[in-house]
Write a structure and sequence with these properties.
Layout (H helix, E strand, L loop, with lengths): L4 E12 L7 E12 L3 E5 L6 H7 L8 E10 L2 E2 L5 H7 L4 E4 L3 H4 L6 H11 L5 H14 L18 H13 L5 E5 L7 H18 L2 E6 L2 H7 L2 E6 L2 E7 H6 L4 H10 L20 E13 L6 E13 L4 E5 L6 H9 L6 E6 L2 E2 L9 H6 E4 L3 H4 L6 H13 L3 H14 L16 H14 L4 E5 L7 H18 L2 E6 L2 H7 L2 E6 L2 E7 L10 H7 L9 H8 L38 E3 L5 E3 L4 H9 L6
Parallel strand pairs: 3-8, 3-9, 6-7, 7-8, 13-18, 13-19, 16-17, 17-18
Antiparallel strand pairs: 1-2, 1-4, 4-5, 9-10, 11-12, 11-14, 14-15, 19-20, 20-22, 21-22
């Protein structure tokens, strides 16, 4: 082993299955090395083998798989020659793992501190008191709030981004030689992702940790890694310095990944021309909605999620709804679909009032509005075949059965570019992208006028996500279907939408055509979202963090009035005496966008171009 290498992988092979049953090789002779203190990224589509390779660094293979050949060395340790006890001793002590979903990795019944320090106590590396002090120091380094007391909370009492950083603290508590980060920010919204990436990068630098970062997002990798290994089908397609891979990729597959990562320019407006006399397909006026008991005085729910939201979707157009987790995007979709009642406001469909309760809607209203959920795994019945899943809406909406239903089912599969051969398979036998296409086929079976797309690409890798966006565009052109596209990724929204609304804490803070998001001025919160999309260049994260590190201007206490600007606590250009005292009025910018803000268009433009309003 090269003396300067902390990790050395040679000829690694991993197979699924075992003789006498068929055996499939999923990692096919992979070689790479990582120097001490270096961050290596493993990147590729779902199924490329990147997580399987990362887990082999811990001497681990998932159920149904086995490491069939090659060598893995961590420092002087030959990982694959260790027995079970040796591999258990290796994990957490010498090689630590940060999983994709921290919420699934933490025990909800135990405090955070007990779980973070457990690896140190399990390996008898320090006393409980020393471990707790070290954990608090890690909480501080990871920029967690109230580091002295956050450990006393339970996992459900912190946000997703905080829980992901706490998982990193758990991994680092034993001073491991190597940390494996397996897609640790994929499930986070863009602003939270930046905070977590910055915290990870700072701690890796401070501790001089050797790290392997698994991702499908080249823009994220550009901020974190020194070198990149590009994988496809269990093979190494490219291995090089991050700058070389981004600027001069050698392999055609790497170029394909880069093309998918660079969001296409927004297309020309594809909306069909409509007469002013024709009402919008969907129109919402002054919508308020939420959960819990209705207050008799205000007529509003105890937990108000949406407050005075208005929008319209012309026939044949796409509206993007963007905002962070908790902004009210999914609640809005649930109200439109009839899955949640509304406290105030009107919802009109084709110019006619749409009943709030699903049970009060006509069969035709039910048919014309369909919803596609974020997680295809939970949206598809695992015990049914794809033919059964698509057959149910065909029978319910169109009374198609037998040969007629079979013919239409195959047409739907063809429409979403899936082979007829998957009809008799169950969802478990499909990839993530295939499952999401089945989700769309099921929605299209109803022949709807409007499809509500709730974060439909956020769980997919870059290439598959780009293919789903292309599919949406084709279906819109061929069928004239309209979409409400919910996302936290402003670049994705700009790529496929005609109009955009921005939600923050249930308020519509900005609305306009997609072009208003191309350049300032925009609402300060929109600016935060625009500038939180990682750029495909090394150093972007460091530059962004330096801009956003300035302290916010002071703001006196104000009455906790829901009419005041909901973004004022986070706004870097808040105005003393206005933002904490007076509700912002609706202001129209020169671009045509409408925003809720006290600043003039000229002032926002000046501040944002000077980067006084940081991301």
């Amino acid at each position: 082993m090269n003396a300067g290498n902390m990790i050395e992988v040679r000829g690694l092979r991993v197979v699924a299955g075992a003789a006498p049953d068929p055996v499939v090789e999923i990692v096919k002779g992979v070689d790479f090395s990582v120097k001490k203190g270096e961050v290596l990224a493993l990147i590729g589509e779902s199924g490329s083998g990147k997580t399987t390779i990362a887990l082999s660094l811990l001497g681990y293979a998932r159920a149904g798989c086995s490491i069939s050949g090659g060598s893995v060395r961590i420092g002087e340790v030959d990982v694959l020659s260790l027995d079970q006890a040796g591999r258990r001793a290796l994990r957490a002590r010498k090689v630590a793992y940060v999983a994709q979903s921290a919420s699934a990795a933490f025990n909800p019944a135990r405090t955070i501190m007990d779980q973070v320090i457990e690896p140190a106590l399990l390996h008898r590396l320090m006393t409980r008191d020393v471990a707790c002090k070290k954990a608090i120091a890690l909480f501080r380094s990871l920029a967690l709030p109230t580091p002295e007391t956050i450990g006393e909370r339970y996992p459900h009492q912190v946000s997703g981004g905080q829980l992901q950083r706490l998982m990193a603290a758990m991994a680092l508590i034993t001073d491991p030689a190597v940390v494996v980060f397996d897609e640790p920010t994929t499930a986070l919204d863009v602003t939270t992702q930046i905070e977590v990436l910055a915290a990870f990068k700072r701690v890796i630098r401070e501790l001089g940790t050797t790290a392997v970062y698994v991702s499908h997002d080249l823009a994220v990798v550009a901020q974190m890694a020194d070198r990149v290994v590009v994988l496809n089908g269990g093979l190494v397609k490219e291995n090089g310095e991050i700058a070389q891979v981004l600027d001069a990729p050698v392999d055609a597959y790497t170029r394909q990944l880069l093309a998918a990562s660079r969001h296409p320019d927004a297309p020309a407006d594809a909306r069909p021309a409509t007469s002013a006399a024709v009402p919008p397909l969907l129109e919402i006026r002054g919508l308020s909605a939420g959960y819990g008991r209705i207050d008799r005085t205000t007529g509003l729910p105890a937990a108000r999620i949406l407050d005075d939201v208005s929008l319209s979707i012309p026939r044949g157009s796409t509206l993007g709804v963007i905002g962070e987790s908790g902004s009210g995007k999914t609640t809005l979709a649930r109200v439109i679909a009839g899955l949640l009642g509304r406290a105030r406001g009107e919802v009109l469909f084709n110019g006619e009032p749409l009943p709030a309760e699903l049970s009060q809607r006509t069969h035709e209203q039910y048919r014309q509005i369909q919803i596609v959920f974020q997680n295809a795994d939970t949206a598809l019945n695992p015990s049914h075949t794809i033919a059964d899943i698509l057959g149910r809406p065909l029978a319910f909406y169109h009374r198609l059965r037998g040969a007629a239903a079979r013919k239409r089912m195959l047409e739907l599969l063809d429409l979403v570019k899936l082979p007829a051969s998957i009809a008799e398979r169950n969802p478990a036998g499909l990839s993530g992208g295939q499952k999401q296409r089945v989700n769309f086929a099921r929605a299209l079976a109803a022949e709807p006028a409007l499809i509500l797309c709730d974060e439909v690409t956020s769980a997919l890798d870059t290439v598959v996500g780009a293919a789903i966006l292309d599919l949406l565009g084709e279906l819109r052109r061929e069928l004239g279907v309209s979409y409400m596209f919910i996302s936290h990724d402003i670049s994705t929204v700009r790529a496929i939408c005609d109009d955009v609304i921005v939600l923050y804490a249930g308020h519509r803070v900005e609305a306009g055509q997609r072009d208003v998001l191309a350049a300032p001025p925009y609402h300060p919160y929109t600016g935060l979202l625009v500038n939180s999309v990682p750029a495909l260049r090394p150093g972007w994260l460091d530059a962004r963090c330096s801009v956003s590190s300035a302290a916010l201007p002071p703001l006196s206490a104000s009455d906790d009035s829901p009419e005041l600007c909901s973004f004022r606590a986070r706004c870097p250009v808040r105005i003393e005496g206005k933002c904490n005292a007076t509700a912002p009025s609706l202001r129209r910018l020169e671009s045509g966008a409408e925003i809720l803000c006290h600043h003039s268009s000229e002032e926002l433009d000046r501040l944002q171009r000077l980067e006084v309003i940081p991301a």
